[in-house]
Write a structure and sequence with these properties.
Chain A: One of its GO terms (cellular component) is plasma membrane. The complex is a heterodimer of chains A (365) and B (250). With 365 residues, chain A is mainly alpha-helical. Chain A is built from 14 helices and 1 strand, in the order βαααααααααααααα. Chain A has one domain: Formate dehydrogenase/DMSO reductase domain (Formate dehydrogenase/DMSO reductase fold), CATH 1.20.1630.10. In chain A, α2 crosses α7, α8 crosses α9 and α10 packs antiparallel against α11. The C terminus of chain A is likely disordered. In chain B, the strands form 4 sheets. Chain B has a 4-stranded mixed β-sheet with strand order 8-1-10-9, with helices on one face. In chain B, strands 2-3 form a two-stranded antiparallel ribbon. In chain B, β4 and β5 form a beta hairpin. Chain B is globular and about 55 Å long. The N terminus and C terminus of chain B are likely disordered. The chains are: A mainly alpha (365), B alpha+beta (250). Chains A and B meet through β1, α3 and α4 of A and β2, β3, α3, α4 and α8 of B.
Chain lengths: 365, 250
C-alpha cells in the first residue's frame, strides 16, 4: 500500500455473486467428487469399496439435487432461467454450464436409479416407511449392469464437464487476478473431491462405523491434502518467481490484507492438520471428515466473497458483512435445509445403514 | 391604474414569444455534436482530468437522468488525497471521473450467458433489460468496476452514455452538466467534430485506463497520472455510500 495516496471518495461495489453461489459451487463440487467415489464399488466392484461407494452415491445425489436450487437463487431474475436455453451464447462458460448441469444430473439420476433399484425393491418388500413409493420407483428392482455402465459413462461426461466449467467460469475472468489462473479449476476439483471424501466419512460414522472403510477413506483424504498443498505451493511459487505475472498481481492485491493473511494461514493449517490426522490417526473419521468439508467450503467462500472484496480500480478493499436475509445467512441456512430435507427423503427410501453395509446380504442380515 | 400597453410593445412581445420555440430548439441542437443514430457514428468520450474540479455534478445529474437507485452509481469522480513532495502544501487532491469505458473489445460481452449485453452499431455497450437474467457475470468481468446489479430492476446496470439522450440528438447528462467542461463527447468518425480535434491535439498525452488488458476503451483521458491508470495503490476509501439494499434486508 502506498501511504502517499488516500482515497477520499469512491464507489464501493457490493458483492454481486452472493453466498448462494458459494453454496452452489460447494454442493456441485461435493456431488461430482462423491460421484467419482461411487465408481470403485458400484461400477468396478473393487473389494472393500461397496459400502463407501453406495454412501458416496447417496452424497452425490443429495448434493447434486440441492445445488441447482442454490444456483437459481443466485440469479437476480430466477424466473428467467429459461433464457439460458433460449439464447445460447457459446462464448460464455456460464451458458455452456446451463447445458452441462442437466447432462450431469440426468446421468447421475439414471445411474443412481439403476444402482439402487434392487435396494428400493428390498425396501418395498420390507414394508418400511414409504414402501409403496419405493416399490414404484424400483420398477421391478432388476439389476442391469449394461445400463448402469452406460449411465455411468453419461454421468462421467457430465461430471467432467461440470468440473471443467465451474473452474473455467472463474479462471477466464481477467478482471480478477485472483480468479484468473489456470490452477483454479484444479484447486476447485481437488478440494471438491476432498470434501466428498469428508462427507462419506461422516455418513460412515453416522451409520455402520466401518473401520476398514474409515481407514481407506482417510488414506484417500491424505492424498488429496498433499495434492492441495502441492498446487497451493505451486500457485505461490509462480507468483513469487514472477513466472506467472497474474499470480504475482493476485499476490500483490491480497497479500497486504490482514483478512487474507488470516485466510491463508487458516487454509494451510486446516489442510496440514487434516493431512496429519488422516495419516497418523486414520480412525478420527468424524473430525477429518468435518475438517475436509470445512476446507472445501471455506476455500469457495474466500475465493468468491473474498475475491469480490478486492476493488478492480479503487484503493484498499471493500468490506462485506453477511446480511441476515435471503441474500446472506438465510440463503446459506435455506440451502442446508433443502439438503437435510433431501437427505431425509432419500434415506427414508434407502436407509443409511443398509447402504453403508455395502453388500446386500450383509444389509439383509 | 394600469397604463394601456403600446401596440408596438405588444407586437414585439408577441414576435418574441413566437420565436421562443425556434430559439430553444436551435439552442438544443446547434452546439450538440450528437445526432440521431444512423449507424455511422462511433460515440466516445474524452475526459480532461486537468479541468475536472471534483464537484460531482456529473454524478448527481447521471443519477437524476437515469433514476439510479440510492447507493449505486453509473459514474463517479474518484477523489484522492496525494502527498506532495515538491510543494509547500502537504497534500493535493487528484480527481478521476470514472464510467463505463464502452470498450471496443469489451470483456463483459462474451461472458454474458444470454447475449443480453451487446455493442450497438454506434459503439455504445448496452444491456437488453428484457433478456438480462441478473447473473452478474458481466459485473465480475468488467475490469473497471463499472457495472452493478440494480436492486430495483434486478438486472445488470451501467453507464449507457445516456443512449436515450444521444439518440434524441442530446449530449449525455454528465457532459451537459460538467462545470469545468472536462467531459467532451462526440463521434470519433467525424473528423471535423470537436472530439476528433481534441483527441488529435492531445494525442501524445492521451491515455486509457488499464491499457494492458487491451480492452480498447472508448473513454480517453488527458492528464491521467500513471499511478491511477489501474488499481490504485493507496489507502482505502474513507467514505462509502450507505447501502440501502443490505440494510433493508439485513
Amino acid at each position: 500500500m502506498n501511504p502517499n495516496i488516500v482515497e477520499t471518495i469512491n464507489v464501493a461495489r457490493e458483492v454481486a455473486w452472493l453466498p448462494w453461489a458459494v453454496q452452489y459451487f460447494f454442493l456441485i463440487g461435493l456431488s461430482y467428487g462423491a460421484w467419482l467415489l461411487s465408481l470403485p464399488g458400484i461400477v468396478f466392484r473393487r473389494p472393500g469399496w461397496a459400502g463407501i461407494s453406495r454412501l458416496a452415491l447417496l452424497g452425490a445425489l443429495v448434493c447434486g439435487l440441492a445445488a441447482p436450487v442454490a444456483l437459481l437463487a443466485d440469479l437476480h431474475q430466477p424466473g428467467r432461467f429459461w433464457h439460458f436455453y433460449a439464447y445460447f451464447t457459446p462464448s460464455s462458460w456460464m451458458s455452456w454450464g446451463a447445458f452441462f448441469i442437466p447432462v450431469y444430473l440426468g446421468g447421475l439420476l439414471m445411474y443412481a436409479w439403476l444402482a439402487f433399484r434392487p435396494d428400493l425393491a428390498r425396501h418395498a418388500a420390507s414394508g418400511g416407511k414409504l414402501a409403496k413409493l419405493a416399490g414404484l420407483l424400483a420398477y421391478g428392482g432388476h439389476e442391469s449392469r449394461g445400463a448402469l455402465k452406460a449411465a455411468a459413462l453419461l454421468a462421467f461426461v457430465g461430471a467432467a464437464l461440470v468440473a471443467l466449467y465451474t473452474g473455467a467460469e472463474l479462471a477466464v475472468v481477467q478482471a480478477r487476478p485472483l480468479w484468473n489462473t489456470p490452477l483454479l479449476p484444479l484447486q476447485f476439483a481437488i478440494t471438491a473431491f476432498a470434501g466428498a471424501v469428508g462427507l462419506v466419512l461422516l455418513f460412515n460414522r453416522c451409520s455402520v462405523r466401518d473401520e476398514a472403510a474409515n481407514r481407506r477413506l482417510a488414506k484417500v483424504l491424505a492424498v488429496t491434502q498433499v495434492a492441495a498443498l502441492v498446487v497451493g505451493a505451486l500457485w505461490i511459487a509462480l507468483g513469487l518467481s514472477g513466472l506467472f505475472p497474474v499470480h504475482a498481481q493476485a499476490l500483490a492485491e491480497v497479500g497486504p490484507s490482514a483478512n487474507w493473511q488470516l485466510a491463508a494461514v487458516w487454509a494451510v493449517s486446516a489442510t496440514v492438520l487434516t493431512l496429519l490426522l488422516a495419516w497418523k490417526r486414520p480412525g478420527s473419521g468424524l473430525l477429518i471428515g468435518l475438517l475436509a468439508l470445512h476446507s472445501a467450503w471455506m476455500m469457495r467462500w474466500s475465493i468468491f466473497i473474498g475475491g469480490q472484496e478486492v476493488p478492480k480500480t479503487g484503493a484498499g478493499y471493500y468490506t462485506y458483512s453477511l446480511p441476515l436475509g435471503p441474500e446472506g445467512l438465510m440463503g446459506i441456512i435455506g440451502t442446508a435445509g433443502l439438503w437435510v430435507f433431501l437427505f431425509v427423503l432419500i434415506t427414508t427410501l434407502l436407509p443409511l445403514d443398509r447402504l453403508a453395509a455395502g453388500s446386500t446380504d450383509k444389509a439383509a442380515a | 391604474m394600469k397604463a394601456p400597453s403600446s401596440p408596438l410593445v405588444d407586437a414585439s412581445r408577441r414576435a418574441f414569444l413566437r420565436g421562443v420555440p425556434a430559439l430553444t430548439a436551435a439552442a438544443a441542437v446547434a452546439p450538440t455534436p450528437a445526432l440521431a443514430n444512423d449507424g455511422k457514428h462511433q460515440w466516445a468520450m474524452l475526459v480532461d482530468v486537468r479541468k475536472c474540479i471534483g464537484c460531482q455534478a456529473c454524478t448527481v445529474s447521471c443519477i437524476q437522468e437515469n433514476i439510479v437507485p440510492e447507493g449505486s452509481f453509473r459514474t463517479v469522480v474518484s477523489t484522492y488525497s496525494v502527498k506532495l513532495t515538491d510543494s509547500d502544501q502537504p497534500a493535493g487532491t487528484y480527481v478521476l471521473p470514472r464510467l463505463c469505458n464502452h470498450c471496443d473489445n469489451p470483456p463483459c460481452i462474451p461472458v454474458c450467458p444470454v447475449s443480453a449485453t451487446y455493442k450497438r452499431e454506434d459503439g455504445i455497450v448496452a444491456v437488453d433489460g428484457d433478456r438480462c437474467v441478473g447473473c452478474a457475470y458481466c459485473v465480475q468481468a468488467c475490469p473497471y468496476d463499472a457495472r452493478f446489479i440494480n436492486h430495483e430492476t434486478n438486472k445488470a446496470d451501467k453507464c449507457t452514455f445516456c443512449a436515450h439522450r444521444v439518440d434524441a440528438g442530446l449530449l449525455p447528462a454528465c457532459v451537459e452538466t460538467c462545470v469545468g467542461g472536462a467531459r467532451i463527447f462526440g463521434d470519433i468518425n467525424d473528423p471535423n467534430g470537436e472530439l476528433s480535434r481534441r483527441l488529435k491535439e492531445a494525442q501524445p498525452e492521451l491515455k486509457v485506463l488499464k491499457p494492458e488488458l487491451e480492452t480498447a476503451p472508448r473513454v480517453f483521458y488527458i492528464g491521467l497520472d500513471e499511478r491511477f491508470t489501474g488499481k490504485v495503490e493507496g489507502e482505502g476509501t474513507l467514505w462509502k455510500p450507505r447501502n440501502l439494499h443490505s440494510s433493508a434486508h439485513g
